[in-house]
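Escalated from tier 1: flavin-adenine dinucleotide holo job.
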Amino acid sequence: LPAANGDFYDLMSTLSDRQREIAARVRHFMETEVAPIMNGYWSRDEFPQSLIPKLRDLNLTREIWNDDGTRTPDASVTEGIIIMEMCRVDVSTAVFFGVHAGLALASVALGGDERQLKEFMPRLLDLDMVGAFGLTEPEGGSQVSRGLRTTARRDGDSWVLNGEKKWIGNSTFSDVTVIWARDEADDQVKGFLVRRGTPGFEVEKIQGKIALRMVENGHIRLSECRVSEQDRLQRATSFRTTADVLRLTRAGVAWQGVGCAMGAYELALKYAQTREQFGKKIGEFQLIQNHLVHMLGNLTAMQMLCLRLSGMEDAGIMRDEHAALAKVVTAARCRETVALARETFGGNGILLEYGVAKHFCDTEAIYSYEGTNEINTLVVGRAVSGLSAFV
Ligand code: FAD
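Tier 2 regenerated the structure:
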């Protein structure tokens, strides 16, 4: 794997041979299969369905998960490297992958019983089935547990779901969407595997996003949507399981910031080495070098932070506040980095064809999902002070 310009401290040398091979596989895929088509799909607000069989052939999900719902050794670092390499080129592709292999697969792995693991895991792992994760609601974003209004009513051998879900990635074409709903009888949040085409499950594609335009986010309306008891996640009996799933995926979101910043920096560096003004390469100007070094410092610090975070996760010692701090720091540093990269391009920085504009826009979504900056800050603040700012 040739050294990337954005790998100043040789992060790759800390990985296993297997992880380096995976990184090379993902990098090749992103550069040959995704880069040539991404701007067209990003402009059209569409996910390229042709990527799904190609991602299936890459077989990345099995690098993280086993069929029985357990994680592979070093899964968190491996997943982080996959996400980083994806985001260097295109964050939307990483989000498609993260929703499927992170949120949806983790819901089944942590909440499913043996029968459900047998039925769903191999198909999800082989991408024969695409997953989505429906938690957020129009009125319940940050206050996701307390604000969860979607209801589940037991009726004989089935459940009847009513409510709305907003922002649900992949849901416009997913084969199965995990819907989190509140049981009317015991008030607990439970998970339901809603299969595509189930009557009463309707998805409208959210239009007009300025970030992650290649990801299809859906607004789901559930009206008297009937799901069999067999498709209720049997081991997810309270919001605790939902929180476990989110904890498992938060490190991945921090890695998105790393990859996105790396991609933007590498583009800016190349531009600074070639673009000329006042008879010089713009990279010769001290102020531009300051931009480059500021970006490189940010992303190198982000890489080291995430590597340690994922190491802690793999060792089973990562707590919520560890992941939350990494999300806060990487999203903020990524935002600063992509802005400097965009600035380095001058006017060309707002043109899609120069690449950096997509990183600039996509960062805004990274900044706000999987816990906004404020919410993750409060999670860390509570842990370090012993005082909760939440009501
Ligand atoms: P709000 O909760 O309304 O927050 C608005 C502002 O108020 C924010 O700045 C927030 O930090 C601040 N705020 C709220 N409470 C406090 C407080 N106590 N103290 C200080 N400030 C506060 N969800 C899914 O379930 N599945 C998905 O696949 C999914 N994909 C997404 C993809 C994209 C592109 C986006 C943008 C979102 C996605 N989400 C998804 C939802 C995402 O997790 C929420 O948008 C996020 O949790 C924030 O919720 P909200 O947008 O309702 O903002």
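The longest strand covers residues 158-169.
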